């Protein structure tokens, strides 16, 4: 029973249950679409949360990694005629190698300088995608064939849902492994971590690469699902959106990343009735949440219940 | 010096001065509060759009400009009072997201009130280009440069000679010590946001006769101003202005001689190179981290 209450097993069981019964409540293809979109965003956010929440490093350019996965898959499978899954793997490897190469110089930077560098990297990649239109179709985007063996939307739902559960499980395990402890030490105090023998650079680089690969795979699957990709996916706003999801849900909380992705993916759909006022209201909700719940939703709620337990 | 080179230099310096003013705004807020204000670009947009709006109401140009600066400054004050002050003690990422929220709100507001169309502020003194050594320069460019120089001098005076300016510097050096010396730190923060908003608005008003403006015009200007501030060493006001000029000139030369499709990428390539080789910016202090 105690074990069920721990976030590792209990949380995953709750998530499995939600994913299992959710289709019964989704009445049309559009709602199903939103659910799948939430899963996609949640997986990227879980990876990004490892970097931001546990590693204490910020990235304002993660949209670019999603974009590299998406366009890598699109170009290799459509332009070169490769098998989509192979294209996805090669795109992920390419993204991982690129992340590895830039990680060392970038992660030497701290705070706002790191924010600027990741932002700059993201914008450069997005401008390249926009400009090299002979490969990418430019701002109009490009059409991509889906996976031949997954045709029904509900199948996508189960596949991405399973991938989400796997990501949560992998993330929780990583956090509770020696690597996770080393990362949290880096977050707490980089100097102190180094003093006790943690190779801080190695861990920071590793987590940067892992989060980039998470993003790339989601980008690839995303284009196979939607059959279409535009440069917006690699843009500054997508990067910001991802960071906002992580912080909104609660940094350093895997389930926070999932909740943040779920709420911020759904919220704009609920706000569409506001038409022109949509962005205004979205911005206000974002500001108010961050002002009054600076730690994010999930950690605030958990802290509230823990306090209740003691009394 | 060829006329072509001179032409690129003129346009680079004009844009660079604008980036410098935006960067200066970043620096002032950063110094006072350690916050990177991602709504800085929206102050710039609001200056330009506000002027268009007040001109539309039939106000004469100078009054419309002052009204737009006043409106933007109010937003700066409001941002500090209603968003940054209540979130005191939150970590850096949370504060960044609050300012991103503010930028979304301001863009949303501008879109609702002023629509999505592009607008032009009329040039301050005609649009007859002046020819210098075979290159041409718009009178508006001279306005941009002249006012930037005046503002830089005025700000130096403000920070070095006035009590308020010295209080801002003291707060940026050591907030607790400043507070113990009887400086009203909350008021300093309040003023810094207003000042920074006013600077952004002025930059927006100066540049929009050349580049046009709409509700999204602040995004790229803000990001490049951020580049300028980082390039000059975050928190170094004069560094930000120099950084702005470097970004502007590099952009104009790069677009003119190398690859015009990648004009917008040049600022970011430059900033990455600088950060890789000199992580504290060109004129930043290489400080050691306190443990």
Order of helices and strands of chain B: HHHHEEHHHHHHH
The shape of chain B is: globular
Strand order of the largest sheet of chain B: 1-2
The pLDDT mean of chain B sits at 88
Could you give the distance between the termini of chain A? 21 Å
Order of helices and strands of chain A: HHHHHHHEHHHHEHHHH
| SS elements, strand count of chain A | 2
Structure explained in plain terms:
The complex is a heterodimer of chains A (311) and B (291). Chain A contains 15 helices and two strands. Chain A has 311 residues and is an all-alpha fold. In chain A, helix 3 (29-54) packs parallel to helix 8, helix 3 (29-54) runs antiparallel to helix 11 (200-226) and helix 5 (84-107) runs antiparallel to helix 11. Chain A has one domain (36-310): ABC transporter involved in vitamin B12 uptake, BtuC, CATH 1.10.3470. The model of chain A has no long low-confidence stretch (mean pLDDT 87). Chain B is mainly α. Chain B has a domain at 19-126 and 136-216. Chain B is 73% helix and 2% strand. Chain B has a two-stranded antiparallel ribbon. In chain B, a hairpin with a 2-residue loop joins strand 1 (130-132) and strand 2. Chain B is globular. The mean pLDDT of chain B is 88. Chains A and B meet through helix 6, helix 12 and helix 14 of A and helix 4, helix 9 and helix 11 of B.
Quick summary:
The complex is a heterodimer of chains A (311) and B (291). By secondary structure, chain A is mainly α.
């Amino acid at each position: 029973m105690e074990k069920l209450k721990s976030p590792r097993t209990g949380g995953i069981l709750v998530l499995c249950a939600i994913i299992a019964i959710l289709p019964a409540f989704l009445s049309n293809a559009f709602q199903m679409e939103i659910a799948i979109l939430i899963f996609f965003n949640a997986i990227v956010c879980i990876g990004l949360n490892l970097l931001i929440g546990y590693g204490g490093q910020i990235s304002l350019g993660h949209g670019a990694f999603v974009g590299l996965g998406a366009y890598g898959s699109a170009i290799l499978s459509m332009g070169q005629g490769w098998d989509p899954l192979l294209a996805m793997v090669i795109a992920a490897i390419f993204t991982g190698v690129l992340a590895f190469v830039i990680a060392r110089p970038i992660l030497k930077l701290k705070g706002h300088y790191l924010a600027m560098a990741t932002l700059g990297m993201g914008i450069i990649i997005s401008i390249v995608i926009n400009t090299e239109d002979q490969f990418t179709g430019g701002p109009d985007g490009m059409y991509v064939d889906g996976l031949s063996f997954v045709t029904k939307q509900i199948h996508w739902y189960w596949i991405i849902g399973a991938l989400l559960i796997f990501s949560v499980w992998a993330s929780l395990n990583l956090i509770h492994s020696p690597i996770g402890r080393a990362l949290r030490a880096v977050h707490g105090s980089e100097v102190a971590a180094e003093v006790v023998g943690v190779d801080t650079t190695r861990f920071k680089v590793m987590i940067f690469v892992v989060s980039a690969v998470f993003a790339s795979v989601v980008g690839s699957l995303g284009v196979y699902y939607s059959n279409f990709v535009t440069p917006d996916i690699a843009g500054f706003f997508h990067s910001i959106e991802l960071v906002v999801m992580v912080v909104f849900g609660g940094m350093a909380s895997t389930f926070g990343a999932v909740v943040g992705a779920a709420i911020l993916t759904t919220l704009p759909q609920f706000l569409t009735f506001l038409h022109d006022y949509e962005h205004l209201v979205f911005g206000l909700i974002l500001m108010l949440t961050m002002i009054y719940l600076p730690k994010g939703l999930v950690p605030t709620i958990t802290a509230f219940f823990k306090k209740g337990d003691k009394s | 010096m060829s006329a072509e080179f001179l032409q690129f230099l003129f346009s680079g310096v004009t844009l660079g001065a604008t980036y410098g003013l935006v960067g200066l705004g970043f620096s002032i807020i950063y110094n006072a509060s350690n916050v990177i204000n991602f709504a800085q670009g929206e102050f710039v947009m609001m200056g330009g759009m506000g002027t268009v709006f007040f001109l539309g109401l039939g106000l004469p140009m100078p009054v419309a400009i002052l009204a737009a600066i006043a409106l933007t400054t109010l937003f700066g004050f409001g941002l500090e009072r209603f968003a940054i002050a209540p979130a005191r003690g939150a970590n850096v990422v949370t504060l960044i997201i609050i300012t991103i929220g503010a930028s979304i709100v301001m863009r949303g507001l501008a879109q609702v009130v002023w629509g999505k169309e592009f607008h032009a502020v009329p040039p301050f003194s005609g649009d007859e280009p002046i020819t210098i050594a075979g290159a041409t320069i718009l009178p508006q460019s001279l306005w941009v440069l002249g006012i930037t120089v005046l503002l830089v001098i005025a700000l130096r005076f403000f920070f070095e000679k006035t009590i308020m300016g010295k209080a801002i510097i003291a707060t940026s050096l050591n907030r607790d010590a400043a507070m113990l010396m009887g400086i009203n730190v909350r008021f300093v923060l309040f003023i810094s946001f207003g000042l920074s908003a006013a600077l952004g608005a002025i930059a927006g008003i100066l540049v929009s006769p050349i580049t046009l403006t709409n509700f999204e015009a602040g995004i790229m200007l803000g990001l490049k101003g951020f580049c300028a501030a980082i390039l000059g060493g975050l928190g170094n006001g004069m560094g930000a202005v120099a950084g702005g000029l470097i970004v502007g000139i590099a952009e104009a030369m790069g677009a003119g001689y190398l690859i015009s499709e990648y004009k917008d990428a040049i600022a970011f390539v430059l900033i990455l190179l600088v950060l890789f080789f000199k992580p504290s910016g060109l004129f930043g202090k290489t400080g050691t981290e306190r443990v």
